[in-house]
Amino acid sequence: MDMKKVHKRSKALVIRETVVSYIFLAPALFFFLGFVIVPMGMCLVTSFFNYTMTDFTFIGFDNYIRMFQDEVFLKALVNTFIIVGVSVPAVVIFSLWVGASIYKMKAFTRSFYRCIFYLPVVTGTVAVTVVWKWMFNKYTGLFNHVLLGAGIIDERINWLGDERFALACIILILFTTSIGQPIVLYIAALGNVDTSLLEAAEVDGATKLQTFWRITWPSIMPTTLYVLVITMINSFQCYALIQLLTSGGPNNATQTIMYYIYYQAFRLYDYGYGNAMGIFLAIIIAILSAIQFKVTNSGKVD
Amino acid sequence: MKKLIALLLACVMLLSLTACGGTGTAGGNDGDKDSKTEITLWTYPVGKFGDEATVKGFIEAFNAKYPDITVTVQYLDYTNGDSQVTAAIEGKKTPDIILEGPERLVSNWGAKGLMVDLADLWDDEALADISKTSEAVVAACKGADGKYYEYPFCMTTHTMAINYEVFEKAGALKYINEDRTWTVENFEKALKAVKDSGLVQVPAVVYCGGQGGDQGTRALAMNLYSAQFTNAEHNKWTMNSAEGIKGLQKLVDLKNAGLIDFDPAAVASDELQLFANGTIAMSFCWNAANQSSYASSVTFTPYPVAFPSEDGTPELCGGIWGFGIFDNGDDAKIEAAKKFIEFICDDAEQGPKSVVATGFFPVRSSYGNPYAGTADEERMAVFASFQQWLGDYYNVTLGWAEQRTAWWGMLQQINDGKDVTEAVNDYVDTCNKATEAASK
Amino acid sequence: MNKGVNKITPYKIFVIVVIAVLAVLFTFPLYWILTGSLKDPIAINAAVPQWWPLEPTLDNYVRLFEKPAFLWLMNTVFMAVMSMILTCITAALAGYALAKKRFIGQTLVFSLFVCAMALPKQVVLIPLLKEMAFLGLHDTIWAVILPTVGWPFGVFLMKQFSETIPSELLEAARIDGAGELKTFLTVVLPIIKPGIGALAIFTFITSWNEYFLQLIMLNSQEVLTISLGIAKLQAEMASDFGLIMAGAALAAVPIITVFLMFQKYFTQGITMGAVKG
Question: Of A46, B137, B147, B290, which shows the fewest CB atoms inside 10 Å?
Fold first, then answer.
């Protein structure tokens, strides 16, 4: 009897908690459902249609089949993964390294560097792209100017026009514009690692590397997760750079899914096909996000 | 608890309120009750039609005659304009009037059934007057269904330009004929002379970075051995003809000889920048408007010339600009839009002014030379002399957007060493497929 | 600590050199933008780069303000601030509930948020456009704000922050008889404030720099933002670089202000996430 009563009460409690929780969640859910889930659903449905400006007929999985026979799409897929696969780890490692090198410096120097590395973030995409485009210019650009002057190269390189370099150049620009936030975050996180723990480890005779892995790394894990997610968002969203610098060329060397979706939808009005690619990309990103979350969360020290 | 709910409710209400507010102001359709008709005009930056002050002046003049029509203007750019129009079409927010050329008005939006037939603007007088200038203009403004989707008012021919001083110093001016044409042989000699002079890094750059200015590279490749870009019916692409392949092969040969450069990272405006700062000695993307817009950023004389051709008779690509009306289903607005177009294009006083604002030439032969007696007379006379070589306006071929991308891709491929014949055949295949798909 | 600072090792020199070189590379674009905005058309396009404007001119700024640059700026500020406020409110409420409450459907809701958090908005652009047209919001700034607020990254972030709220504090508040809202305002909010600061900066900056969503959603002169305004200065045949640089310099001012304003929260913010680990 008693047990039942408790059970009943806890059930009532759960319901009450549920109601309260959903009231707290309501505003976020309103926007999320309205402006993410609904369009996502429309996207999914229309991806099974031959959907253009003038046509709307059901074609089943044809868009998806076409996708995997489309060489440009496959190339774009590979490039997108190269961009994400290179820039995400590079940003994490590098920003951690810079953060670790800077956070012990004097307050003024620290602030100074923090601002320096933040600057590319605050300068709008279009203008930054214009400057980078000039820097990479084959004839008048800064890089060829400096490298030729220093005798490192003896022939001008067409950085953005050469299949061998174009994607790397895009990644480099993406890197400089993505790294500001992570550095700032890591400086803060590292500065707040419990020093008593660090000292204790030192007393115990742990090497620097051991201290880092056992104490610092777990403590900054939440920051790392944050950095991973925002960098991934930035890398997948890499669209403006491509549009303003290479239009996906040369020979699709810098073609990304984002740009290709844009091209199919807004240049060729093939919305159904664009939406199918969008759904495909969304599934991949969802899986990646979930994995990232699981991995970084399981590494937590409770 | 109650407070929280109240807060949330307030938030939602506030939101929906502002949302409704947004709808009300943006919709603007309720204004029909009074006698005022509101129409919207979107312009691509065709000369000064991208400049707010100029367009405002024109609208004031229009309102002096038609005070009951309010015109709101939005200015598009060529990088993003197409996406914005697409968004507007899908968002059912298209403007009433749009200013651009046949490749968009006729073969894109017109072919998709989004535009209004402008047959009543094309009355007998207009037809006769414009035909007298060029039949090609009339043909370009007419869709495959025989309806007119564009009412044009200005046109130009795209040419190339050389750096006069560099050519002079390099002793290359002698390769250009009096009438500003030149042969392929002389073109090559001139490139050699300029290269040997060491005055520039490289004599010329074939830009193939995509987006805009493609008429320059097309005209260059076509003219060398007088190839045709499409068939006369504008439903098949023909650059894989012997002449077309020969022309493109010539460009590759010139590149391999170090006389020109292919640049897949450069778009037309990049090439123009290189030309303007003296890094290269010629531009393949020139016209009357560029001549005036680059006047303040060059320290030399840009000298317009025709594209080189083996037979000495160039066939230049034209540009034709005018207005189209999106069918928004409101007859009053369509009528008002037509009045506006008629005023801008055909009004005895305004018409020539509109043409001068673009920096191009009138399509109406009755306007004569609107630059006569102005400071621009001499400059414009040079460009007027190119009009005689105006070629077929093949830009109205369906599948144009795909063709453009494929064209850039093909140039990038042959730059990369792919066999020219193979690359061109692939390109023509892609284009023909797109054209076929679009004509269904 | 001290001996580490004083000893000069080859590694330290390497660190200083690399960081200095990178600092130059990172600041160079902004430097070039600022100096470029003071150059005339010939200088800005010079084949041999002019490292410093030899004949500085304010002409670009004069021309910029002949255009409705101030309106663009105001629109962008409105858009970014509204996105920021709405995101912070919705995310703080939802994040707290997800972290500290146990309720039916929790796993499902949270999984949905996690899966969608890194999704690029462009993926659903066409449906979003249709939806906005249906709601009559296309071509209003709300068409950009609403999807930005809907993106669940903020919820996710605030959930991570709210995890650090000691449950004992919540329990104590309940025993004191505080209602849910009061608990949230007096106990939760002060603890997650730094997290909100971090989210505020992040949202402000992303919506400030966002470009494609604005491009598709906004057309009218009255609702243009600074990114769009600048993008419009790039013409097909001639880009007015001086004007673009001036526009970019102008656009950077508010964002630097926000960074400096919230910097304190931002740097404290992450601590909280780290305490509990």
Answer: B147
The 10s digit of each residue's pLDDT in A258-290 is: 899 988 988 888 999 999 999 999 999 999 888
Higher pLDDT among residues B135 and A28, named by residue: A28
Residue A191 has pLDDT above 70, yes or no: yes
User: Which residues of C make CB contacts under 8 Å with B?
Assistant: 41-42, 45-47, 67, 89, 126, 129-130, 132-133, 135-142, 179-181, 184, 215-217, 219-221, 228, 231-239
Inter-CA distances, C18 with A159, A259, C12, C15, C73, Å: 23, 33, 10, 5, 37
Check if the beta carbon of residue B413 is closer than 8 Å to that of residue B334.
no
Q: Give residue-wise pLDDT tens across range C213-248.
A: 888 888 888 888 888 888 777 666 667 788 888 888
Q: Is there a domain that residue A102 lies in?
A: yes
Query: How many domains are there within chain A?
Result: 2
- What's the whole-number mean pLDDT along residues B278-299? 88
Check whether residue B376 and residue B406 sit in a common domain: no
What range defines the domain where residue A195 resides? 62-298
A251 to B5: CB separation less than 8 angstroms, yes or no:
no
Helix residue spans in chain A (DSSP H) = 2-32, 38-46, 62-69, 71-102, 107-122, 125-136, 142-149, 166-178, 180-191, 195-203, 208-211, 217-219, 221-236, 240-245, 257-262, 271-298
Whether residue A37 is predicted with pLDDT greater than 90 in this model: the reply is: yes
Residue with tokens 């906005």: C132
Domains annotated on chain C, with CATH: 59-269 (1.10.3720.10)
Q: Are residues A151 and A267 in the same domain?
A: yes
The DSSP output letter for B282 is E
Question: What ipTM goes with this model?
Answer: 0.85
Is residue A31 within 8 angstroms of chain B, CB to CB? no
Task: Please indicate, yes or no, whether residues B293 and B197 belong to a single structural domain of this protein.
Answer: yes
Residue-number span of the structural domain to which B77 is assigned: 37-157+319-389
Closest approach of A110 to chain B, Cα-based (Å): 38
CATH label of the domain that carries residue B410 = 3.40.190.10
A55 located within any domain: no
Same domain? A24 vs A119:
no
Q: Tokens in use for C277?
A: 């680990």
Q: Report the C-alpha dihedral over residues C25, C27, C30, C36, rounded to 10 degrees.
A: -60
pTM above 0.80, yes or no: yes
Q: Is the pLDDT of residue A1 over 80?
A: no
Number of domains in chain B: 2
* Chain B residues contacting A via beta carbons under 8 Å: 1, 4-5, 8, 11-12, 79, 82-83, 86-87, 89-90, 112-114, 201-202, 205, 208-211, 261, 263-267, 270, 274, 277, 279-280, 401-402, 405, 408-409, 412-413, 415-416
Let me know whether B146 and B189 are in one domain: no
Chain A residues in contact with B401 (beta carbon < 8 A)? 267-268
Alpha-carbon distance B64 to nearest alpha carbon in chain A (angstroms): 39
